[in-house]
Amino acid sequence: QVQLVESGGGLVQTGGSLRLSCTASGSTFSIYNVAWYRQAPGKQRGLVAKFRTGGSTYYTDSVKGRFTITRDNAKNTVYLQMNSLKPEDTAMYYCYATHPQGGTYWGQGTQVTVSS
Fold first, then answer.
1. Are strands 91-98 and 104-106 parallel, antiparallel or unpaired?
2. Residue whose C-alpha is closest to residue 8's, from 109, 115, 114
3. CA atoms within 13 A on the CB side of 70
4. What would the pLDDT profile of 15-42 be if each residue is shown by its tens digit?
5. How far apart are alpha carbons 12 and 14 in whole angstroms?
C-alpha cells in the first residue's frame, strides 16, 4: 500500500509556471505506474500526463509542449512541471498510482489557479 501527498499548487498568472510534486510513502514507489489527473469545477476528472510502460510519457493534447512529467525514485517523488500556464489549466490536480499486481491510489489533490 502507498500513501500519496501532492504539493506545489497555488495561484499563478497566465504564462507562469508551477511544479507539482507527488511524494509517496509506505511502499517501493519505483514499481508503481504514476499519472497526474485534474478536475475543474463542474467537469470530470481527466488524465493530464502519465508514464507509459517502458518509460515513455503520454500527455493530453491540451498540455503537450507545456507540461513535463518526471520522477525521482530515490526521493519517491513524481513531478509535473507546468509552464506557460493558461486559465483553462485551473483545476485540482491529483496524483494517481497503480501497483502492477493490483491496487490503485489517489492523493488528496493540490489546487492550481491561473489568473488571466
1. antiparallel
2. 109
3. 9
4. 999 999 999 987 788 888 999 999 999 9
5. 7
